[in-house]
Amino acid sequence: MTETVVDFPKNFKKALGDGQLRHNLRAAMDTLGMRRRTLFSDLDVFEKLRERGDAIRQRALRQLPELLERLEQKCTENGMQVHWAETPAEANAICLEIIQKHNATRVIKGKSMVSEEMHLNHFLDERGIEALETDLGEYIIQLDHETPSHIIVPAIHKNRDQIAQLFHDKIPNTPYTEVVEELNAIARQVLREKFFAGEVGVSGVNFAVAETGTLCLVENEGNGRMCTTAPPVHIAIMGIEKVLERLEDVPPLLRLLTGSATGQLITTYFNMISSPRKPGEKDGPKEVHLVLLDNGRSKIWADPELRHTLKCIRCGTCLNHCPVYTRLGGHAYGYVYPGPIGSILTPQIEGLKNAGAMATASTFCGACEEVCPVKIPITDILRRLRTESYDQDETPNSVKDHGHKLNATESLTWKGWAFSNATPWFNALNAKLLGLAGPLLPKLPAVGIVKKWSQSRALPTFAAKSLHVLAKEKGIRDE
Amino acid sequence: MSEARANILNRLRHSARPQPTITEPEAAPAPPLSQADKVAQLKQRMEAMHAEVIITNSGDWTTALKAVLRQRSLNGLLYAPHSPIGVMLSEGWDSDLPPLVAYEQSVEDCKERLFTIDAGITSTQGGLADVGALILWPTPDEPRLMSLAPAVHIAVLEASKIHDSLASAMRTERWAERMPTNALLISGPSKTADIELVLTFGVHGPKELIVLVLND
Hints:
Chain A: This is Lactate utilisation protein B (LutB). Chain A: Pfam families: Fer4_8 (PF13183), LUD_dom (PF02589), LutB_C (PF11870). The complex is a heterodimer of chains A (479) and B (216). Chain A has 23 helices and ten strands. With 479 residues, chain A is an alpha/beta fold. The longest helix of chain A has 21 residues, at 19-39. Chain A starts with 7 loop residues before the first helix and ends in a 6-residue tail after the last helix. The radius of gyration of chain B is 21 Å and the shape is globular. In chain B, a hairpin with a 7-residue loop joins strand 10 (191-192) and strand 11. Chain B starts with a helix and ends with a strand.
């Protein structure tokens, strides 16, 4: 993955200054939020449903090692081939080996966030293999050499004019048109030939059912079915956390996923794959491979609080409701997973030094938590990650780069703050002194160690009398 | 990569510590629907998703089908000659209708035909009333691409096979014991909203979905 430290202030400034981006995002996020509210209009019903979703995901995670083994066993019995990868590099190597074994150079892909995590397209491209995204949104951004800016609607940062120009520039013999139906028809025509000729199909997995060895895919366009049906080989890639215990766990989660993501009762297609083509069957891939990727998930899993991160079903609704995301879009975050879920997941995978700043991209308004279909305690985890950057006491479950921001000045300042607040006479003295000297204090200079703090904040005006003193004067009992 | 497998499982086992079990709330029981209600609900929901739902009966559904076909100009209808509906179709096909094209070879030998024919007809495993969707379990006779590659998908649904919900279909039909190679839920023609969230129909899957609901 990206090794460079992301320059958030610079990214944020750029995103906030992009009027077109803000306009495109605002409209889309409001619409998605409204559609979700319409579907989950009965809050009691929604609350009960998400309590079930939460419980199902927790039950699955509690038995994660056993369920992964059962999934492997069931899938193998069903005729699939199961592969395990600790790192994105290993997962890429597994995919490459399968593709090369079949002498394939044309890979068609359904939407998969895990494959984005692996940078699979780039990896294959460097080895002379075309990996073509076939979801319309993903296709659009791939044409423009971009990454998704949203988990569910990856090209939402672009408007139709920008897409019209892109198609006109990049697809041979394509006239400029801003009519959405026509743009859609252009993509259909181009991609249909690719579906016809694709040699290997790659997809993600929304849920994997251990009980039956079934891979579930949720989609609207039909490209996911194409990628998993038309080519002779199908490679499905999933994070190890996506496993469910029982088939009957699927319906409530499916409702929560489609409702939270786009406000749909159900998507056009719900595709459940349990085996490769059986003798006598006329189509479907002859080989189905399942790649299980860890990439830091087993470490996250070890910590009871951080484990909640892994309940996520990637509906993206926390993005749509986040006051930070809706103004910045996904690219400013600099990593594959943006928004609230990205801000808790990415630092745990990439480490606090590179991605810890993502946890500061929050107002702690808690909207993400209110809408989360599986009740991930996002703000608690954000707070935990912020603390871990400065904390001293490292444990085996600590996040990578624990305490990397620890420095003597800040430690001393906060120790002094803690002492003052825990020592009534000292606190009273400080309040009095600040009240007296406050008006005389100079503006905090924007230099040296205080620069980062002072350049964006004004010094508060200290009152002559503290609230504590005022209360005492009014005769309110001091306890 | 069996080393990766051992390492991942070791890490999970090594750090495993007892987690409190949480009680799982039961699904709120919904009152069972009559068949007529289920048909009405499915029709309403699927039409909202731009499917065309035609209520007919097992006696003359082929008449309804032929009317649908005559309204359109189609280069052929892909069908499964050995399925029950396929047998009925081949018995009384009129010459003015789009020719019936059998899906009899494996995809490798007829892929071009599958991707160029205008329409395909399949039976269904059932339907879901609460969300408005068809259940398809493709079979050797009725393969997976029949409901995907042609631009028009016509599906035949027996009203008695409509379930209240996915959960009840899974339970009453014991899916967990007998999952097929591929099971599908289909709620309408393919669609996308990836450009400015503008909903458009007919992306990579069928542009039209026509459902013939057969009352007994």
